[in-house]
Amino acid sequence: MSTQNTEIIKNVNFGKIEVNESQKLFFPFGLFGFEDYKEYYLVDVNISPFLLLQEKSDENIGFIVCDPFLFFSDYEFDLDENTMKVIDAKSQDDILILTIITLSDKMEEITTNLLGPLVINRKNHVGIQYIINSDKYTTKHKLFLNKK
Amino acid sequence: MLVLSRKINQSIMIGEDIEIVIVDIKSDQVKIGIVAPENIKIFRKEIFLEIQAANKEALEKKFSPSQIRNLLKKDKKN
Questions:
Q1: Which of A112, A114, A142, B56 is the most buried (most CB within 10 A)?
Q2: Interacting residues of A62 by C-beta distance below 8 A, sequence separation 6+
Q3: Which of A11, A48, A102 to mutate to test the interface with B (most CBs of B within 10 A)?
């Protein structure tokens, strides 16, 4: 296998971050509103359970993301065949789901976008932002509320 | 913007691969059918705009690493 290349990338809040190839993710269609930005690194910046999804070249494009199932154990949706094809995923086990977080000064107002999750193939590191065809979910679900 | 008038069951072709069909018309609502290749994504516009806006909003406010860690400390139930 090829040697892991280490790179330094920057985030406007976290400063310089050392990353390697294994953390690289490729979004062929970018993210909605950011279609031209396709290369990201998924980084642990010590804000567990959150991670940083940092765009390779623009330090301002760093999304805080999380594993939504940590907060919403009954979160579920169907993935259409075309999406599976785009990321070349053969089974559900190949797939990592991350959702984008909108932070707030108040913990209870921190929300995540369950309507447009990031669907990523763990094996080839290709991902897309998927819009769920359901009115069950919104772009703003509070993470730190006592759930019913 | 190209504006065309269609009656029920009439269609519009966009390129060779996309067809828009007027399926039904009822007072203030029109039912539209879309035939398109699998790789063309189709959404109600407001959903599309909402996701765009949510992505942008997620980047708007700046939070320092220590701010984030403090926020998360308040939820140390694990």
A1: A112
A2: A11, A12, A13, A14, A52, A53, A54, A55, B59
A3: A102
- Residue A98, domain member (yes or no): yes
Q: Tell me if A1 is assigned to some domain.
A: no
Would the pTM count as exceeding 0.80? yes
Residue A148 in any domain: the answer is no
Domain that holds residue A83: 6-142
Residue that has been written with the tokens 């708007």 in this structure:
B60
Three-state SS sequence of B3-50: CCCCCCCCEEEECCCEEEEEEEEECCEEEEEEECCCCCCCCCHHHHHH
Over its length of 148 residues, how does chain A's per-residue pLDDT go in tens digits?
555 679 999 999 999 999 999 999 999 999 999 999 999 999 999 999 999 999 999 999 999 999 999 999 999 999 988 899 889 999 989 999 999 999 999 999 999 999 999 999 999 999 999 999 888 999 999 999 854 3
CA-closest candidate to residue A111, choices A137, A134, A132, A136: A137
Task: List the CATH number of the domain containing A59.
Answer: 2.30.290.10
Instruction: Determine the 3-state secondary structure of A120 from DSSP.
Output: strand
- The alpha-carbon gap from A130 to the nearest alpha carbon of chain B, in Å, equals 10
Taking the CA of residue A106 and the nearest CA in chain B, the distance in Å comes to 7
If one counts the domains in chain A, the total is 1
